[in-house]
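subagent[fold] <- orchestrator: predict structure for attached chain, return tokens only, no commentary.
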Amino acid sequence: MDELKNRLVVRGLLKNIESKIRDLNPSSPLKIMEVCGTHTMALHRHGLKRPLSDAGIEMLSGPGCPVCITPNEIHEQAIALATEREGLILTTFGDMTRVPTGRGSLQTAVPAPGSRVKLVYSPEEALEIARAEPGIEVVFFGVGFETTIPGITLTVRRAFEEGVDNFSVLTAFWLVPPPLRAIASAPGMRIEAFLYPGHVSAVIGARPYRFLSEEFGIPGAIAGFEPGDILLALSSILDQMARGRPEAANAYGRVVRRDGNPAALRLMEDTLRIDDAHWRGLGLIPKSGMRLKPEYARHDAKIRYDLHAEYHADDLPGCRCGEILQGKISPPECPLFGNRCRPETPQGPCMVSYEGSCLAHFKYRA
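subagent[fold] -> orchestrator:
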């Protein structure tokens, strides 16, 4: 681990990447999408964006921030629960309360009598509140990819087995591979390679990304989060380009196994069903989300409270977060960036979430 953060090692890897790009001699900078929001933040925090750009690699953010890709309509369902239903505790993570919508945000919403919004650090904490207050409804607004889905569904299963009937989850569960197919299939797609997420891949393994190399001829590599991890994955991608044999390489072998995490995958299969889902910027993507199975209906807030959404325009006027999540533009190209849209006055979720591209660009901009 220390070697992956060592400055001399990092400089050596950067020089190696520069040499490989010279050998490839591309006519323009290579456009590589880092799918994961944590990679976006790591690239900025470790100061890799500029040297990679100088070497000839343009890193573009992808749809790997769950707070960001959740459509406003789902955020508004949570706001409706807190403001329109009496005697309800809506629990969620801190970032989720600050996302601006046409109805404001959970942070600015005025709860109904006897209701409140409470920040928690885990779904288990929300379940503990429901155990302690059996006379009040407790809803956990649970958003996440394959990394966090198992933990949330384990909490649901515990509530089911214990008979904690005042606990439910407003789910916004997303699967990472389907939106990558949507991006790869889009007309005028300009992504030449993918840097695959480490945390998600620890659960699902490398196999789910193979379609990108086999069907679309797009190279990619799973990366960890130290600067050396990221550079080794990019080096693997450049090797694939040089050989003309794209693949879904695993450059994070100390964590990611070929078949992922069987226990987590089995838990998801037992408690959830695959469903079509709406993504900010990408619209409706078939089989890209998950919902609780019918036997867990009493713990499904959408069923319990008869919640429905009509999906329209995702972003507030002027905000281009949806385009940023598709890799079409970078944050500074949004006219609101750094002006009306700042961390203290966010106009979209990409400036709210710690994994948001706009926040990373703003925090670490030169």
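orchestrator: received. Logging for downstream: Residues 18 and 55 are 5 Å apart (CA to CA). The first helix runs from residue 2 to 5.
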